[in-house]
Amino acid sequence: MIKVLSYLKPYRIAIAFALLLMLTELAVELVQPLIMAKIIDDGILANDLSAVTKWGGILIGCSIIAFFAGIINSFYAAHVSYSFGFDVRKKVFDKVQSFSFANFNLFPTSSLITRMTNDITQIQNTVFMSLRIMLRAPLLIIGGILMAFIVNVKLALILSIVVPFLFIFLMWLMKKGEQLFKEVQEKLDTVNAVMRETLTGIRLIKAFIRRKHEVNRFTKVNEDLKERSEVALRVMEITMPVLLLIMNLSIMGVLWFGSIQVNTGGVQVGEVVAIVNYATRITGAFSVFSFIIMAFSRAKASSNRIVEVLETPADLIDRTDVDPHGTITYGKIEFHHVMFQYPDTDSPALENISFTLQPGQTVAILGATGSGKTTLFQLIPRLYDVNDGTLFVDGQDIRELKIESLRRKIGFVPQEALLFSGSVKENIAWGKENAGMDEIIEAAKDAQIYETIKKLPNQFETKLGQKGVNLSGGQKQRLSIARALIRKPKILLLDDSTSALDMKTEANLLRALKKYTCTTLIITQKISTAMEADKIILLEDGKLLAEGTHQSLLQTSQLYKEIFHSQSREERDYA
Ligand SMILES: Nc1ncnc2c1ncn2[C@@H]1O[C@H](COP(=O)(O)OP(=O)(O)OP(=O)(O)O)[C@@H](O)[C@H]1O
Predict the structure, then answer these.
(1) Ligand 1 atom 28: the closest Cα is on which residue?
(2) CB under 6 Å to ligand 1: residues?
(3) Which backbone phi and psi does 261 adopt, to 5 degrees?
(4) Measured over all CA atoms, what is the biggest interatomic distance in the chain, rounded to whole angstroms?
(5) How far is the CA of 383 from the centre of ligand 1 (A)?
(6) Could you give the ipTM of this predicted complex?
(7) Taking CA atoms, which of 33, 103, 189, 241 is between 20 and 30 Å from 524?
């Protein structure tokens, strides 16, 4: 909790001011019973109207001060807590942006979303409450008891006997609450995960008529969340009745002992009234305290989840010995005995991979599903680091380049064309900061999407729905390619990105790519695409099975020959 709260440092002056105002309010609250005792004993019982006026005036003055202190305190508490929430959310967001894929394996996306929203809101609300009421409650309890002792020691003793036990009880409750609320937040993660899956997969759910199944799945996790939350709240809810019972018993004790003392003249009526007044305020403070304990336990559980993210070291960062001016000029790629294994898996996804691609070559990567094609791609922009061997670009180990310099020269089109909400223009320009309209049009033309864009209702200004829902699969693919081309990359990675294109469009695209003189790697299942490439790399079970041109592979690779013949046969059958 302390670690997260350290983000409050920039607001220390505002916090000090808020606390000062809160203490002013508190001081007024504490002297009020004393003033009332004076009005009763010195004014009403002594039949002295001037004393009633004097103490009454002081009481009103104090109340006005407390009123304004309360309003200004609220203003500062809101400013500090919301600014703190903003800062922590930004910090967590920045941290997550620096995560490698391996880091992401530790935190499911839905959990990261819960942490950045709900968890931070919990802490933010607790900070607000702290500055507004949290410290007031314990201070009011301590101050109330001290004032009670000033008024009458014997009566105050009766009142104070129970207080230490109540404090211990509340501390125990806080510890228990932290664990319970940790579980509640975990259940919330699961609810968010299911919600996310069902919302993103809504078309599939409808097509497979799986609505009932998904509703049941959601109901199950939603019920789990409800049950866990109920358990947590039930434990917290016992606090209030316990507190009220104990405090009411002690008030009864004060009244009973006080009435005996008033009769014998040991205590004045005003003193008994003042002590009962303090006891009532202390009881109120304890009730608030129980509420605070609940918020605090929850905030503590949430803080731990935030710290977990913030303290996870990003495991893919620039080495200290990187060449600050290093960049990619030609796009020559060399895999040298590369081995890669995903974290927490039993066997390598790529084993002893060695090959060289010359600048400007077009290379087709072929292989059965799961043979390691995407994995091989992900190593080039260092989305993962090789476990063994070396990957050179332009003769330099890519780990000796700054990650930013490396990625700046790579155009990456992932398997699933991912677009962002915004206009067509914004989606293409996303690939290059400050891209001009000429560059956007050029990239669109080369990606064979220009004519399609011209037919859209607002052409380049047409707004795309979430993830580009208003485009076809092939249109999305070509828009993603345009986004990669606008960077003028030296290395272009197309992960099955032409699968939805017809043969003519694909041939036009490959022709247009020639002018980029970039080394182009294309993962493809289509032999027609592979035939156009300068080189073909054939992967099987993470191993390089063969490499060469179409003609040479027909001679040397049995698997390639089989793929070629089976696809040629299919084409003949369809023709
Ligand atoms: N994030 C991951 N964590 C663990 N294992 C993974 C991960 N991604 C892929 N794998 C495994 O690595 C192997 C290679 O996967 P990869 O995605 O590179 O295959 P691929 O040839 O691109 O397949 P496809 O043609 O179906 O896209 C597979 O066995 C896969 O199960």
Answers:
(1) 370
(2) 342, 345, 349, 367, 369-375
(3) -65, -35
(4) 120
(5) 14
(6) 0.96
(7) 103
**Tens-digit pLDDT profile for residues 112-137:** 998 999 899 999 999 998 888 777 78
- Measured in angstroms, how far is the CA atom of residue 373 from the centroid of ligand 1? 8
**How many helical (H) and strand (E) elements, i.e. helices and strands, does the chain have?**
23, 12
Q: What is the b/e burial string over 495-523, where b = at least 16 CB atoms within 10 angstroms of the residue's CB?
A: bbbbbbbeeebbbebbebbeebebbbbbb
Tens-place pLDDT, residues 426-469: 888 888 878 788 889 988 998 888 888 888 888 888 887 766 66
282 with 159: CB under 8 angstroms?
A: yes
From 342, 365, 416, 497, the mutation candidate for ligand 1 (largest count of ligand atoms within 8 A of CB) is: 342
**Closest ligand 1 atom to 105 CA:** 1
328 and 394 Cβ atoms separated by less than 8 Å: yes
CATH numbers and ranges of domains, the chain: 2-310 (1.20.1560.10), 325-409+491-504+516-575 (3.40.50.300), 417-488 (3.40.50.300)
Summarize pLDDT for 253-264 with one digit per residue, the tens.
888 888 888 888
Tokens 């607790």 correspond to what residue? 126
Amino acid at 367: G
Q: Is the pTM of this model over 0.90?
A: no
Task: Return the ligand 1 atom nearest residue 101 CA.
Answer: 1
Shortest-distance atom of ligand 1 to CA 367: 21
The distance in angstroms from the start CA to the end CA of the chain is 68
Cα 337 to averaged position of ligand 1 atoms, centre (Å): 19
The closest residue, in CA terms, to atom 31 on ligand 1 is 370
Q: For residues 25 and 66, what is the distance between their CA atoms, to the nearest angstrom?
A: 5
d(CA 129, CA 27): 19
State both tokens at 69. Answer: 């202190």
Closest residue by CA, ligand 1 atom 5: 342
Cβ atoms of residues 190 and 109 within 8 Å: no
Which residues, listed in sequence order, are joined to residue 539 by a DSSP beta bridge?
Answer: 367, 544
The mean predicted confidence, pLDDT, of the chain is: 86
